Amino acid sequence: MLFYLITRRQAFHVKSPNPDESLSVIDTRDVIVGLRGRSGGERRKECVGEENWVDSRTIYIGHKEPPPGTEAFIQQRFPDNRIVSSKYTFWNFIPKNMFEQFRRVANFYFLIIFLVQLIIDTPTSPITSGLPLFFVITVTAIKQGYEDWLRHKADNSVNQCPVHVVQHGKVVRKQSRKLRVGDVVFVKENETFPCDLILLSTSRDEGVCYVTTASLDGESSHKTYFAVQDTKAYNTEQEVDSIHATIECEQPQPDLYKFVGRINIYMDNEPVARPLGSENLLLRGATLKNTEYIYAVAIYTGMETKMALNYQSKTQKRSAVEKSMNAYLVVYLFILISKAFVNTVLKYVWQADPNRDEPWYNDRTESERQRHIVIRAFTDFLAFMVLFNYIIPVSMYVTVEMQKFLGSYFIMWDDEMFDEELGERAVVNTSDLNEELGQVEYVFTDKTGTLTENNMEFIECCVDGHVYVPHVILNGQVMPGAGMDMIDTSPGPEAREHEELFFRALCLCHTVQVKEEETVDGIKQGIHQGKSTSFYISSSPDEVALVEGMKRLGFTYLRLKDSHMEILNREDEIERFELLEVLTFDSVRRRMSVIVRSSSGQLYLFCKGADSSIFPRVISGKVEQVKARVEHNAVEGLRTLCVAYRLLSPEQYQEVCHLLSGAKLALQDRDKRLAEAYDIIEKDLILLGATAVEDRLQEKAADTIESLHKAGMKVWVLTGDKMETAAATCYASKLFHRNTQILELTTKRTEEQSLHDVLFDLSRTVLRQHGGMTRDTFSGLSGDCTDYGLIIDGATLSAVMRPPQEDSNSGNYKEIFLEICRNCSAVLCCRMAPLQKAQIVKLIKASKEHPITLAIGDGANDVSMILEAHVGVGIMGKEGRQAVRNSDYAIPKFKHLKKMLLVHGHYYYIRISELVQYFFYKNVCFIFPQFLYQFFCGFSQQPLYDTAYLTLYNISFTSLPILLYSLIEQHINMDILKKDPSLYRDIAKNSLLRWPIFIYWTILGVYDAIVMFFGAYFLFDNTTFTSNGQMFGNWTFGTLVFTVLVFTVTFKLALDTHYWTWINHFVIWGSLIFFVVFSLLWGGIIWPFLNYQRMYYVFMQMLSSGPAWLSIILLITAGLLPDVLKKVIWRALWPTTTERIQNADKLYKGHLSEFTPLASLQSKAGSQRRGSGGQRNAPNPRRSEPFSKKTMFTRWQRTPDYCTFTPLLRFADGARNSRQGYAQGGQTSV
Fold first, then answer.
1. Which of 681, 696, 711 finishes a domain?
2. Does residue 136 sit in the same domain as residue 248?
3. Each residue's pLDDT tens digit, 248-279
4. Which among 323, 664, 905, 1184 is least surrounded, fewest beta carbons within 10 Å?
5. Residues annotated in the binding site, as ranges?
6. Contact status, residue 449 vs residue 879, Cβ threshold 8 Å
7. Which stretch of DSSP H or E encloses residue 267?
8. Where do the P-type ATPase N-terminal domain residues begin and end (predicted)?
């Protein structure tokens, strides 16, 4: 490791941001210790008056060495601009993929069994294990290889896209991947930045550019960035190439909103230092807007860009069902080892008697007999393992893979999930997680572009209690010039003056830029003839909506030119106001202000902001009327802002200037001093009025969120947007309701109290209400308790997630935070960096309940949480396709999530859980008779069944019916699942693959196996002759047991099938016919390729016996009877919601879904349900919903009762509680 120690002492100039200020000279001593590390050099730098930097980097602009004598030139190594999102390379694909596949318990187990069959003499052929294993491994490898090839293809398209770089005074073109740190990049309007850049100059004289960062933080609004003060005048390639400067900055980190650095510009060999902050940093993935071109220098490239650092690595996701399968596999593996061990021990106990030595017909050589007993016992143990190995069928994993792959097409073929506007269907990128869609407990959603269309619309404004709506209809005509006054139709002169002042305030108090646009024929047209069409852009979309609203009400903002803002009033007169100061918006103050001077010399301070931040600062105005209107609009889910003003005297203005300049020049605590200055300036205001803007939600977004809540899911909104904006959207989308009590865990609150105190206050608040029970106990419904909603911002989340210090007593805040979240019906996380979104998802995943999570988003800023969640869903939005490419599923609109989870997810889970339990059941039935048979054949490893039956049982005779069942079974009608989301709760928390149900299926399999084996054994104890006097041999006995087995397990599946089609009938009865035909052919022909003919004529001989037919019928009936009785009794006494709806649907011959909504088939509060995780409440119907579609006459008790079905099935509870439910045959007519 190489160390550099360079000590220098030098005086240099530091220019202040204001050119009029005097220069200061700072004496610095820099000790740079560079040690070659991750980026070629890690350095610790200490500067007088600055905080310590650890791990910094130096970038030489244009790769030019600094002037001699200024500082040592140490060329550092940085990565190229290549982006890599793929998982495999050509060289590591086979070993890496094999390693991942054999990490699966099942695959590793079958590999061991295959090797054992190769090494020792076993009762069955190695092909029986090796072929299915090879098929599974190959199919999975091809699928994963294809998916990774698509990622390679996407990476190449990004890495090979052209970028323009300034070299030797000329702009040259090169591939993006060849870009290096220090290159000066030329970017044109609407181009995306290829890496992280420091802005040097722009096409605008003031040295600013406008950028959209939609793919990074989800905000599609325009943001303003500033060029370095000393380089903003360099506007040509030759001028930019002549810049001689170095940049010192921190090493790359994922925080999008933080950057610390400085630039040393060499003028006459004297370095002029300028500070660099996040306002100078252009991030990869952002797009240049409303600026013709820029020049900027690359500082972070490739996988070191902030966007790449916010990506999560793509890991293999495993579903809860697969984890259950692996757990069951371990249990069955233990059963298998136990069986083999017991048989091995009993074999040697049996052979301890000299008269019962190993039989001669086993063909053991003398050397084999003389082996050490331990070696012989171990070999026998392995042979028994192979004999009983079919209890864990590799065919189950083949079937599961096929079911997932084929089942995924039902999502892609769903016409209801096709979006005509986009022309897109749903896409399945990962079919391994289909069943996980039916297990989701937490939904993490982005806001911008996911819940909303990000289109703001001005609705109304209220001035001194008078309400104005643009473009209202009056006397049959649209009135574009003036709004409609809904309270007082004749405002007086003073009110008229206030009205115009209000409109002027909204035309001046903003950061909107104007872009002139011409029509195709070259004639500029607007609302006012002869005026150019104004195309407004801003960092805040609601600012644009307000300015456009004012335009529709008669006051048009024209432009900002030479520090003067121009507006066009109703009389078509242009008014000019000099813009003196802008007091920018921040999330703590929740307001912004401008100070302007009118043409008459009058000084105004106009202020707009949230009502909570404006009302306390108002000293006069019609506060009560405006407040009432604001509250009314807030209830409607509209975004409200209040507007106030203050007249300033010249003396007051001078005082304001002094306060602001002092705060802006502060080196320490600049933000704090600015906030204090703003606080002093924005006071003694006069209230003018308020505005209402609507952020248009995506179609059916509110309905989807409401359905997810009813289904028992918790919905969290994770957004990079401002708190106020996000909160308004949450109200509009029904995430927060009118009676929701909002709990704030934000920077503003933690500044007033310590984080420790705030957390414990919130914890006491929610736990006091709920009495220590989590909201899960109430199933997310708030009939008798306060509904809580939590709002947290990114900065506070960082503090909560920070590990506890050893010397502090703060403790770990994560558990308290999680406890608060568990008791809230909805959570809003705002100002989130992409990596923080992933951290939130990871935190919930790792909590003690280990819930299943789903993340949904549409931009590159959502990729991290999409990859972190159990299920990632991308939306095909306007912000690129990064989310879609990295997701497991992609849908055109947020509304399609409802059907994907409540219908497809429900069906997938029901189908695959039956598939898994049924496979284990039928293999217990298959192998347990083989275990019992060893007690009757001297533990000689003699198979009960023929090799053909052993091989084909799972591959041919019983595999197709369960595969088809797992593809098309619909236990409840699709329309019912959509209309009653609470049915989703019945399958929550992996309820159909819990241990009690697994044990029931296993016991049922053991029972059926005992009935088959001993039933055949005792029935034929004295009846071992056919009609022609022939005796039944061991192969006939085994064939009889196998025949009963195949018919029993197939009939069991038929009894479990609710959705019958011609395909079901064809496959189920066809597989039984195939078994019979195969057995007749297999035993009816002498096959020349076999060296034995032990099955010749066995099947025909068995069928020629009348007692054999009788025993087959009796044993099948005896095997199925207990399961049928159990189902009938359970349905009558303890029916689940699903079973009650199945009964009702049969009662109404499949037309139950016509009666909406379907909630009345659910239990009342407090009723216990079999298979449910807790108590269930039926939610109240929404006021906007029609009360019912049909009235039903019901005779459930002795007297007829007329009941209206809203929500559907409360009658079922009454019926069940009186023990007269569906099972007792209620008569109903419409």
1. 696
2. no
3. 888 888 877 778 788 888 877 677 887 787 88
4. 1184
5. 446-448, 543, 585, 608, 639, 719-721, 831, 837, 858, 861-862
6. yes
7. strand 261-267
8. 75-129
